[in-house]
Amino acid sequence: MEAITSIGTFIFGLFNFGILWLLIYSSFKKGRRDSFVSAALYSGVFLWGLAEFLSLFNCLTFGGILSGCIVYDICIILLLFSKYRRKILSTPELRISHLKHWEFYFIGGVLIITFFLALAYPPNNWDSMTYHLPRIEHWIQNGNLDHYYTSIS
Do 118 and 69 share a structural domain? Predict the structure, then answer.
Protein backbone atom coordinates (compact mmCIF):
# COMPACT_ATOMS: atom_id res chain seq x y z
CA MET A 1 0.00 0.00 0.00
CA GLU A 2 2.85 2.40 0.79
CA ALA A 3 4.44 1.74 -2.61
CA ILE A 4 1.18 2.64 -4.36
CA THR A 5 0.90 5.79 -2.25
CA SER A 6 4.49 6.78 -3.07
CA ILE A 7 4.07 6.16 -6.79
CA GLY A 8 0.74 8.02 -6.79
CA THR A 9 2.31 10.98 -5.03
CA PHE A 10 5.20 10.99 -7.52
CA ILE A 11 2.84 10.92 -10.52
CA PHE A 12 0.68 13.63 -8.98
CA GLY A 13 3.79 15.76 -8.41
CA LEU A 14 4.80 15.34 -12.04
CA PHE A 15 1.30 16.39 -13.06
CA ASN A 16 1.58 19.52 -10.88
CA PHE A 17 4.98 20.31 -12.34
CA GLY A 18 3.77 19.79 -15.91
CA ILE A 19 0.81 22.12 -15.48
CA LEU A 20 3.01 24.82 -13.99
CA TRP A 21 5.63 24.37 -16.72
CA LEU A 22 2.92 24.75 -19.38
CA LEU A 23 1.57 27.87 -17.69
CA ILE A 24 4.98 29.54 -17.44
CA TYR A 25 5.97 28.53 -20.96
CA SER A 26 2.77 29.87 -22.51
CA SER A 27 2.31 32.96 -20.34
CA PHE A 28 5.74 34.52 -20.18
CA LYS A 29 7.05 33.45 -23.60
CA LYS A 30 10.21 32.01 -22.08
CA GLY A 31 12.14 29.19 -23.66
CA ARG A 32 11.63 25.58 -22.63
CA ARG A 33 14.71 25.56 -20.41
CA ASP A 34 13.88 28.80 -18.62
CA SER A 35 10.30 27.63 -18.12
CA PHE A 36 11.55 24.31 -16.74
CA VAL A 37 13.83 25.99 -14.21
CA SER A 38 11.13 28.48 -13.19
CA ALA A 39 8.56 25.70 -12.78
CA ALA A 40 11.01 23.66 -10.68
CA LEU A 41 11.70 26.67 -8.48
CA TYR A 42 8.02 27.52 -8.00
CA SER A 43 7.11 23.87 -7.36
CA GLY A 44 9.82 23.60 -4.73
CA VAL A 45 8.67 26.77 -3.00
CA PHE A 46 5.06 25.54 -3.09
CA LEU A 47 5.96 22.16 -1.57
CA TRP A 48 8.08 23.83 1.12
CA GLY A 49 5.26 26.23 1.98
CA LEU A 50 2.67 23.44 1.99
CA ALA A 51 4.82 21.26 4.28
CA GLU A 52 5.41 24.12 6.70
CA PHE A 53 1.72 25.12 6.69
CA LEU A 54 0.55 21.55 7.31
CA SER A 55 3.17 21.19 10.07
CA LEU A 56 1.59 24.05 11.99
CA PHE A 57 -1.56 21.99 12.45
CA ASN A 58 0.12 18.54 12.69
CA CYS A 59 -1.58 17.58 9.40
CA LEU A 60 1.47 16.58 7.41
CA THR A 61 -0.09 13.35 6.18
CA PHE A 62 -0.78 11.88 2.78
CA GLY A 63 -4.33 13.26 2.89
CA GLY A 64 -3.13 16.74 3.79
CA ILE A 65 -0.52 16.83 1.05
CA LEU A 66 -2.98 15.41 -1.48
CA SER A 67 -5.61 18.00 -0.53
CA GLY A 68 -3.09 20.84 -0.85
CA CYS A 69 -1.93 19.60 -4.25
CA ILE A 70 -5.51 19.24 -5.50
CA VAL A 71 -6.33 22.81 -4.44
CA TYR A 72 -3.10 23.97 -6.12
CA ASP A 73 -3.96 22.12 -9.34
CA ILE A 74 -7.48 23.52 -9.43
CA CYS A 75 -6.17 27.08 -9.02
CA ILE A 76 -3.49 26.64 -11.71
CA ILE A 77 -5.91 24.97 -14.15
CA LEU A 78 -8.51 27.70 -13.62
CA LEU A 79 -5.85 30.35 -14.18
CA LEU A 80 -4.63 28.59 -17.32
CA PHE A 81 -8.16 28.10 -18.63
CA SER A 82 -9.23 31.68 -17.93
CA LYS A 83 -6.14 33.10 -19.61
CA TYR A 84 -6.33 30.90 -22.71
CA ARG A 85 -10.03 30.04 -22.93
CA ARG A 86 -10.42 30.89 -26.60
CA LYS A 87 -7.21 29.19 -27.59
CA ILE A 88 -7.99 26.00 -25.66
CA LEU A 89 -11.53 25.67 -26.99
CA SER A 90 -10.82 26.59 -30.61
CA THR A 91 -7.55 24.95 -31.67
CA PRO A 92 -7.10 21.23 -31.01
CA GLU A 93 -3.58 21.37 -32.49
CA LEU A 94 -0.91 19.20 -30.88
CA ARG A 95 2.72 19.75 -31.74
CA ILE A 96 5.28 17.17 -30.68
CA SER A 97 8.12 18.14 -32.99
CA HIS A 98 10.58 18.80 -30.16
CA LEU A 99 10.42 15.15 -29.05
CA LYS A 100 12.38 14.05 -32.12
CA HIS A 101 15.71 15.20 -30.70
CA TRP A 102 18.04 12.52 -29.37
CA GLU A 103 18.82 14.58 -26.25
CA PHE A 104 15.35 14.02 -24.81
CA TYR A 105 15.60 10.27 -25.34
CA PHE A 106 19.03 10.19 -23.73
CA ILE A 107 17.90 12.17 -20.66
CA GLY A 108 14.76 10.04 -20.41
CA GLY A 109 16.85 6.87 -20.54
CA VAL A 110 19.17 8.13 -17.81
CA LEU A 111 16.17 9.05 -15.64
CA ILE A 112 14.55 5.64 -16.13
CA ILE A 113 17.79 3.80 -15.30
CA THR A 114 18.30 5.99 -12.22
CA PHE A 115 14.72 5.35 -11.11
CA PHE A 116 15.11 1.58 -11.28
CA LEU A 117 18.49 1.73 -9.52
CA ALA A 118 16.92 3.78 -6.73
CA LEU A 119 14.17 1.17 -6.37
CA ALA A 120 16.58 -1.77 -6.40
CA TYR A 121 19.25 -0.34 -4.10
CA PRO A 122 17.83 1.89 -1.37
CA PRO A 123 20.34 3.66 0.90
CA ASN A 124 21.43 1.30 3.67
CA ASN A 125 24.59 2.78 5.15
CA TRP A 126 24.87 3.48 8.88
CA ASP A 127 24.18 7.21 8.57
CA SER A 128 20.93 6.66 6.69
CA MET A 129 19.72 3.97 9.07
CA THR A 130 20.65 5.62 12.38
CA TYR A 131 19.94 9.28 11.71
CA HIS A 132 17.97 10.11 8.56
CA LEU A 133 15.43 7.28 8.55
CA PRO A 134 14.41 7.75 12.23
CA ARG A 135 14.02 11.48 11.57
CA ILE A 136 11.63 10.84 8.68
CA GLU A 137 9.69 8.28 10.72
CA HIS A 138 9.46 10.79 13.55
CA TRP A 139 8.04 13.41 11.18
CA ILE A 140 5.52 10.92 9.79
CA GLN A 141 4.46 9.82 13.27
CA ASN A 142 3.95 13.37 14.55
CA GLY A 143 2.57 14.82 11.30
CA ASN A 144 4.92 17.82 11.40
CA LEU A 145 8.48 18.86 10.69
CA ASP A 146 9.55 19.65 14.24
CA HIS A 147 13.15 19.16 15.28
CA TYR A 148 14.32 15.61 15.85
CA TYR A 149 16.66 15.60 18.81
CA THR A 150 19.36 12.94 18.88
CA SER A 151 22.72 12.46 20.49
CA ILE A 152 24.24 12.52 17.00
CA SER A 153 25.36 16.03 16.08
Answer: no
